[in-house]
Design brief:
globular, mainly alpha, 7 helices, 201 residues, 2 strands
Length: 201
Amino acid sequence: MHLVLDRVVSEIANELSDLDTETAQLYPGALTYKWTAQQVIEHLVLSYRMTNDALQTRLVKGRVVRKKRTLLQWSLQLMILSCGEFPEGVPALEETTPEPEKFAAMSGRQLGKFLREEAEAMNTLLDRCRRKFGMERVAIHPWLGPLRVDQWRRFHSLHGSHHLNQLRSVLAQVSPEPLPVKHTTGSFVKELQMNEPLLKS
């Protein structure tokens, strides 16, 4: 898997590694409108699958996206992909919102494995698109508009990092005992900027 995706997937899997199946289904603060640890992972998996559908469509059609970005989409790309900032309070897309009993209950280790498998499947399609289309915009994100392969990777890495913070908050509230502190070094956003080209107009 590409380093940019592998880093955040590994961090998420590490956070989940000691979680049992029962705790993974608990709502933080017993508030059912908040996501459980498993639902956070389901959301990420569903976002990968939605991207896969868009990429697969382009591969079948054999041509790149011709649609231009709107001013709003350009602004969001600048905010998210270049600056690494996600807007607050934006609800998940319906296609990526976890549904009750869509997936079987899983332990933390199973969820980490599930996330990695789905990320690797998406990464394979991204590689195929890069070989076929090069640096052209290959598929359209519902909010960000048409993106290149490197921009798709950057989006999913930053999106995963955003939900990693959410996951840590959930685990802190549902774990029966205080979780051990897990340190990571460096700035994730800086590493992304070092490993992927900056957003181009």
